[in-house]
Amino acid sequence: MENKYSRREFLRRAGIVGASTYGFLLAGDELLDILEEAKAAGQPTLSIASKGSPERLVKKAIDGLGGIGKFVKKGSKVLIKPNLAWIRTPETAANTNPQVLAGIIKLCKAAGASSIIVFDHTCDNGPAAFKANGAAKVASDLGVQLISGHSRSLYKKINIPKGKILKSDECAKFILEADCFINVPIAKVHGSTGITASLKNMMGANWNRQAWHQNGLNQCIADYFTAVKPDLIILDAVRILLTRGPKGPGETKDVGQVIASTDPVAIDAYAATLLGKEPSSIGHITAAAAHGLGQINLKKVTIKRV
Amino acid sequence: MTKTVRRICQIIFLVIFLVLILITAYPFEHNLATDLFVQLSPLVALGASIASRTLIWEAISFSLIIIVLSIILGRVFCGWICPLGTTLDISDALFFRNRRKKTSNSPHKIKYCILAGLFVTALFTTQAIYLLDPMCLFTRTVILAFIAPVQMMLKWLNELGNAWASGTFEPTIWLGTRISSFLGMRPFVSNTQVYFRSSLLVFAIFATIIGLNSISRRFWCRNLCPLGALLGLFSWSPILKRKVGTKCNECSRCRTDCKMNAIPKNPRLTKATECIVCFDCVEICPQNTVSFGIRLKPERHKETALDISRRHVLQGAGIGLAFAALVKVDPARKLAINGEMPIKLSSDTLIRPPGSVAEDKFIARCVRCGMCMKACPTNGLQPAFHEAGIEGFWTPILMPRIGYCQEDCNICGSICPTNAIEPFDTAEKKHIFIGTACIDRSKCIAWYADKKCLVCDEHCSYKAIYWKVVDGTNRPFVNEKKCVGCGICEAKCPIQPFAAIRVYSYGDKRHMTRDEQKTWSES
Predict the structure, then answer these.
(1) Is A66 helix (H, G, I), strand (E, B) or coil?
(2) A43 in contact with chain B, both atoms CB, cutoff 8 A
(3) Which residues in chain A have their CB less than 8 angstroms from residue B170's CB?
(4) How far apart, in Å, are the Cα atoms of A306 and each of A64, A297, A301, B358?
(5) Which residue in A286, B60, B166, B458 is deepest, having the highest Cβ count within 10 Å?
């Protein structure tokens, strides 16, 4: 055998390999992320719209993700799940802003949705909450169905194979039957779970959510989400509730943003920062990240500001 | 002809009565006087006023209409308006036609005896009018024994419909929405099932009253109804009187046919106190000689004299006195001093609707018509059993585990016919203290099991729950100056079947005026 490398050449190459291995071990995570980011280039995880009327913000945010046409096809059945839980006026920021809701409905209509249902299993009396928070007017003006989930016959049993605590539960049948399911939470603080955003909003799709408290609330929220995933999440941060959440009345802040995403963990992590909280301190966000539902580290999230 | 007019009139009043009950629903936006029928009863107005030592003007002014009507036209209320009388007529035609012998004698006097008894109990501040006043009795029956089961059956239909229709069609809501939009009102059919305690008992009493028809027509109205007795007293000599013409051959058809047994042996005479002006005798007379006309002179005759004797009144009074005395020694009346406020020992969970007057007055005024229970949007108002003692039987109590007092609702105060629940504003509710929530730390999962919960804090409308970190976990506490006892925490507490946070009558501040309560909470 003939020597391919001179000694000098061998040492040089060995040095390069060694150094790069060492470097890779040191900074491997970041390198991988760079690769991932490169793969996902042009496809932001969070699309944050600011400045403009709530309806305009909705359009800008969704356009940042590639437009409503990516989610709502012509003739598809759309289900919108806002947070309309309380008998509170829009100023208190306890429910999803009615104008944000109107903006989404209009976009879905323009995209050619065959039916649009707005559904929530409210905490307070359904019709009264819808009237107070402005959703009833939006629905009647735009001619869409607004349903409060106060009848068990509106729910169907689902299996949650990935669930750690929840193995099966119930889900509003409109969500299971929809072609496109849009989750429209508002960012609020929450007494027991820290914050309310897209993950926590899914409690309103379930029939018996009281049981979750007994079983371990944070894990149940994350477990449920593994089985019921929205196609699109639009976070209302036009005005957010900073204290005495989730029902208020408390201190509010005008942020003037609407955020669109398909990643529930990233959008909730972002909501947590808006509310002045560390995402990793919120139990249900970390539980959802552990399920692989999304990226909790905002530094690794592609954010597009529009 | 006149009989047909009367029947149409009866049906119209029955329908109005039922519609008024149905539209007594949250949200109460039409502001119609849905408590009209209970307020029309002079017995309710007088009885509740005497028992509570308060002139309940709202009820008195309405009942004056009926008193004046009785003085002029006789007991037309019984024959033409009373929805219970109409129901008895209908059930008579349905179930008892030709199935009993015609009796001429009936124990008319019992009703005066009952009336005397009721007034004597009222004099001793015990109100028993609720048991037998037909307006209260029938309103309660419709609400507790008909609406709830009918709604449950509609609910079954609903579930059935949902089983094969995948859409959003819910028959009850659909129907309710259609009818109410036709009437230009908000939906009155609640989309949640309502439950009431003692529906079966209420129905049994009603069924007995109907069943008594098998003895004689309108047995209840003839012999038992205390309101009939009272109206009979007002119409001992009405201006509109029955007249029998000279063609009368005393065939006594009218006498055997009279559903009230108001025609004595001599068919030319009339017992005005019994006659309900139904015009049956006019229609049936083979000689066509019976008519009604104006005559001022009272008809005086031994046979038409008032069926009332001193002995009977004294008997009734005696029974009433004994009733009042026996009720007053019920240990449930024993008071405990809680701060500066006396509360009943009978029940720690005796929670009254907001706006209720102080307990003794409340029991005396409340006629147990059930309107507040019908209207309560959360179904939380339930008829009491033992909670308020024998005296407070069937009075409304809030049972938060069934339903809480909704923050934006003031309907029970708006529709209470005797103002046992005084009207209030939703803005005032944070200063109307009907109870206080207490956390049972041995049951609360945030206390003993270190679990994330705080549902009570989440739902509390008045921010009376606060939490502190104790041993590393958030644990709830109650601020008694803010907790009004609405019970939403108890309703929503995930611990089943009993809540770990419960509302107790401990915080009841009804003995204070609203301003005093406000000052107290802000102090």
Answers:
(1) coil
(2) no
(3) 151, 153
(4) 7, 21, 16, 61
(5) B458
- Closest approach of A268 to chain B, Cα-based (Å): 19
Token pair, residue B112, equals 């005066």
What is the identity of the amino acid at B167? G
Nearest 10 degrees: Cα torsion B363, B364, B370, B374 = -70
Task: Provide the β-strand partners of residue A19.
Answer: none
> Cβ–Cβ of A87/B406 closer than 8 Å?
yes
In DSSP terms, B336 is beta-bridged to: B343
| Cβ(A51)–Cβ(A89) below 8 Å | no
Name the residue among B349, B354, B522 with its Cα closest to residue B438.
B349
Separation CA B318–CA B121 (nearest Å): 10
Cα separations (Å) of A293 from A80, A160, A193, A258, A261? Answer: 20, 14, 18, 21, 13
Nearest to A136 by CA among A170, A95, A197: A95
Element (H, E) at B335: strand B335-338
- B179-187's contacts with Cβ under 8 Å and 24+ in sequence apart are B180/B23, B183/B23, B185/B23, B185/B29, B185/B30, B186/B25, B186/B27, B186/B29, B186/B30, B187/A127, B187/B25
Helices A283-290 & A264-274 angle (0-180, nearest 10) = 160
In B, which residues are within 8 Å of A147 by CB distance?
Answer: 168
CA nearest B432: which of B453, B452, B461, B458? B461
Helix (H, G, I), strand (E, B) or coil at B278: coil
Residuewise pLDDT in 10s, chain A (306 residues)? 556 677 788 788 777 877 776 766 666 556 555 555 545 555 678 999 998 999 999 999 999 999 999 999 999 999 999 999 999 999 999 999 999 999 999 999 999 999 999 999 999 888 889 999 999 999 999 999 888 888 777 888 999 999 999 999 999 989 999 999 999 999 999 988 999 999 999 999 999 988 898 889 999 999 999 999 999 999 999 999 999 879 988 899 999 999 999 999 999 999 999 999 999 999 999 999 999 999 999 998 999 998
Closest CA to B41 of B273, B231, B240: B231
The C-alpha angle with vertex B58 and arms to B52 and B59, in degrees rounded to 5, equals: 65
Residues of A with Cβ-Cβ distance to B26 under 8 angstroms: 125, 128
Six token digits for residue A179: 């072609």
The DSSP H or E segment spanning A254 is strand A252-261
Task: Give contacts of B 260-289 with A, CB under 8 A.
Answer: none
Distance from CA of B458 to the nearest CA of A (A): 6
The residues that bridge with B240 in the sheet, in sequence order, are: B294
Choose the closest CB to B445 out of A153, A174, A214: A214
Which single residue is written with the structure tokens 């055997």? B256
CA A34 to chain centre: 24
pTM, two decimal places: 0.85
ipTM associated with this complex: 0.77
CA distance B208 to B203: 9
Are the C-beta atoms of residues A124 and A86 closer than 8 Å to each other? yes
